[in-house]
Amino acid sequence: MRTSSEEKDSEKEKLNPNRWLQGHPSQQFNVIRRVYQQDALNKDADYQVPKKPLSYRCKRAVQSCGFGECLLNSLPIAKWLPRYSPKKFLVGDLVAGATTAVMHIPQGMAYALLAEVPPIVGLYMAFFPVLIYVIFGTSPHVSMGTFAVACLMAGKVVTQHSVHPELITAVNSTTTESKYY
């Protein structure tokens, strides 16, 4: 027959077979596990970051930077225009604008002809990108405008899909002579 101390030792052996726990088994825990870095854990667990809806992401972006700061980051003109000094910069900016216009206006008209569209479209392409870049652009050293490769590609598409006037024949015609006069 076993004594009560042998039974207790046998019970302890069942609870602590490798003798990891010393003292009272109910008061200590020994956890053996692999040490993970976050990337390895995510990979092993097949974890993927849940996608948030666009409205939530936009709301968080506006809340995180504040409305005024968000507006300044979206419209750079709102940041530099209040600090603009016309006495210092106006003459230089006018010269730079005139130089850019002298280059872009004829170039835009020529590229419009190259693209087989009316020259007024070239004027639009010389003026509006620069105007929009003033509002949304972040670099003062950029000259926006048309370029030849895009015009050649556009011209090819326009030529393929346009209707030439010499191919159109008159179908409806009226005469002034009538039998019933």
3D structure, described in words:
The structure is a single chain. The protein is mainly alpha-helical and 181 residues long. Among the domains are: 1-32, no CATH class; 86-160, no CATH class. 57% of the residues lie in helices and 0% in strands. The chain is built from 8 helices and no strands. The N and C termini lie far apart (141 Å).
Give the low-confidence spans: none
The count of strands amounts to: 0
Report the sheet with the most strands, covering strand number, pairing sense and barrel closure.
none
Helix/strand/pairing class, anyone?
mainly alpha
Order of helices and strands: HHHHHHHH
Q: Give the % helix.
A: 55-70%
Please report the number of helical segments: 8
Average pLDDT across residues?
76
Rg (CA only)? 39 Å
The proportion of residues in beta strands is under 5%
Q: Compute the separation of the termini in Å.
A: 141 Å
Which descriptor suits the 3D outline? Answer: elongated
Short description:
Among the domains are: 1-32, no CATH class; 86-160, no CATH class. Helix content is 57%, strand content 0%.
Give the key terms.
elongated; 181 residues; mainly alpha
Topology diagram in text:
Elements (H helix, E strand, L loop, with lengths): L3 H12 L22 H7 L9 H12 L1 H8 L2 H4 L5 H29 L4 H18 L11 H14 L20
Helix pairs in contact: 3-4, 6-7, 6-8
